[in-house]
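RETRY 2/3 - previous attempt timed out on the joint model. Re-submitting the same 454-residue input unchanged.
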Amino acid sequence: MTTSYELDVNGVTYPVTADQGKNLLSVIRENVGLTGTKEGCDDCECGACMVLLDGQPVNSCSYLAVQAQGRQVTTIEGVMEGPEMHALQRNLLEAGGVQCGFCTPGMIMSAKALLERDEHPELDAVRIGLSGNLCRCTGYAKILAAVEATAVELNT
Amino acid sequence: MSFTIATTVDEALVALGAGARPIAGGTDLVVGARHGKAALPGDLVAIDRIDELGGVELDSAGVRVGALMSHAELMTDPVIVGSYTAIADASALVGSPSTRHVGTLGGNVMNGSPAMDTGAPLTVLGATAELRSVTGSRTVSLDELWAGPGRTTADLGELLVALHLPPAQDRCGSAYVRLEYRRAMEIAVVGAAAAVTLAADGTIASAAVALAAVAPTILSVDGVDQALVGCTPADAGPVVAALASEQAAPISDLRASDRYRRHCIGVMAKRAVDAAARRADGESIAVPVNRSLGIGAA
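RETRY 2/3 succeeded.
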């Protein structure tokens, strides 16, 4: 059944008319029109679809969009600070932590949530923070380095 | 077809009474529907904004743990980590940070998976489940609640509102360990929880062990208390391993054969008793035990 509601994505309120069972990922990509959030496994395993819901990471492929009403959704498009890249984006580029780039939006969302709850994460905490995000290109070392560099940068 | 967002338990109960199914984090319901395991229910009531379903409160009978407590909250809650540590061990192993933020204790319990991580800890800690419906409330043991894989004895109109735990005893410790092939987004190959109380001389005064993923429901191991009372924790290991392996009734599936599960559940039960006894003796073993003691995936 089609239902209508409003969704707050990156601080903008969007009217949505969609099937009640439609997941947040599909609504963000198809109804809202923001395609930075990726569909990887579509099975709540890979983390490519990670967005923030009231600041906490959620696999948007496995979360009903109707349930996000009244909450703040943040996608990769909401991470830039004006014209400037977020430190995580810049450090991932500088560290070479991006190859095909498909996992990158999800990685950044998980890392952003991690750094907001833990300003000085140990390497193991970074590993755990990114444990729901799979990358099949870079072998993770450069991604972890980029997150660690960002933690240092944001706290100096 | 309908979708409503309840803000009180009473609103949720009215919706359930009219045939809606509850959804909190949706980590089982939505993923299950996408797998074709069960279609998404046509009528849903979101219960994730009901304040009275949250929180951990000390009361005269022990501790009330709200059904909406997320795994992320449970793994850091001071009461849970301090006195009911096995629940924190289990919550810290669930899924990934995102699963732990939206996934709830109530969802884990009511989904009724035999491989659920929080089930064995709740069982050894003597938890009971408080179910409410428009006609009243009742409290049942977990053994009565779980009927089989994915099945409970709760009526469709009943909502799990809280788990109740008895008061923590002195010199009591608990732990949950699981066999896993990877560190995240994993389901227990087998899992074991133990609660141990030590006597003044360091021997075991009482003990309970429960097992995950080796039977149609969480399996409480019979005869543990009788067999272990008076043993030192070191002597208890082989005894509890034998009891767990004997009583397990595992299946073979993609993740492990029945023989492998039967062997490994003994190893996990022994390690759970060891960690629980060390905690009972005052040793600080950080949550989750799997990481602190190097159990499970490397």
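The first strand of chain A starts at residue 2 and ends at 9. Closing ticket.
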